[in-house]
Automatic annotation (TrEMBL):
InterPro entries: C-type_lectin-like, C-type_lectin-like/link_sf, C-type_lectin/snaclec_domain, CTDL_fold, EMBP_CTLD, Eosinophil_major_basic. CDD domains: CLECT_EMBP_like (cd03598). Residues 52-75 are annotated as: Disordered. PANTHER family: MANNOSE, PHOSPHOLIPASE, LECTIN RECEPTOR RELATED. This is Proteoglycan 2, bone marrow. Keywords: Disulfide bond, Lectin, Signal. The keyword Transport does not apply. Residues 1-16 form the signal peptide. The lineage of its organism: Eukaryota, Metazoa, Chordata, Craniata, Vertebrata.
Length: 226
């Protein structure tokens, strides 16, 4: 009897040891490589949206959410492009003397760029680019293009011009997007920028070529890409 009891205890101990060994070597059915890839995709999406930092500190976020002056108009200016077609029956494209074709280069064969000196709000400027030139406000993806545009506009009697960047989303989910849908992979912010409490639409400074956020209802010259 004692012999049978001893054998039962030995067998039970060996089974428990084997179970612990199998549990410690457990692998995800997805595989380590798949899990790492999924984590990398999420990380890249977060970086694209927030560029590694929040667009503004929490206290500024609260200030804007509480109803800063002109905030509802800003959002309307961004999203009302299609409505302009219905609202403005007397719409006319800019006169040729109000536009300047920017000098291109072999690197930019696909796109042509046009400076429109007739000042418009951000949403109106995007509408003009679409309706008159079958394009959009310009998106800038490297320093060379930014420098070319800056060199072409620095003689303007205007401090800033519209380019095609804007803030989308709300709260901590705010991020930058180009109106043409291309990826946000370059920025050239002025010192202290971006500050979304000062606006939601991106301008290029004619002196220095840096970028600033501005109230979208401000009328400015703009650059179309087509």
């Amino acid at each position: 009897m004692k012999l049978h009891l001893l054998l039962a205890l030995l067998v039970g101990g060996a089974s428990a040891l084997h179970l612990r060994s199998e549990t410690s070597d457990f692998e995800s059915p997805m595989g380590d490589e798949t899990l790492l890839q999924a984590g990398e995709i999420l990380r890249q999406e977060a970086e694209e949206c927030l560029s590694g930092k929040e667009l503004m500190p929490p206290e500024e976020e609260e200030e804007e959410a509480s109803g800063s002056e002109g905030a509802p108009e800003d959002e309307g200016a961004i999203h009302s492009v299609s409505a302009l077609d219905v609202m403005d029956k007397d719409f006319q494209c800019p006169k040729e003397e109000d536009t300047v074709k920017l000098v291109g280069s072999p690197r930019f064969k696909i796109n042509r760029f046009l400076l429109v000196r007739a000042a418009k709000k951000f949403g109106q400027a995007q509408f003009v680019c679409q309706r008159c030139y079958r394009g959009t406000l310009v998106s800038i993806h490297d320093f060379n293009l930014n420098s070319r545009i800056h060199n072409s506009v620095r003689g303007l009697n205007e401090g800033q011009i519209w380019i095609g960047g804007r803030v989308v989303g709300s709260g901590r989910n705010k991020c930058f997007r180009w109106v043409d849908g291309s990826s946000w992979n370059f920025a050239y912010w002025a010192a202290g920028q971006p500050q979304t409490r000062r606006g939601s639409c991106v301008t290029l400074c004619t002196q220095g070529g840096h970028w600033r956020l501005s109230v979208c209802n401000k009328r400015r010259p703009f650059i179309c890409s087509y």
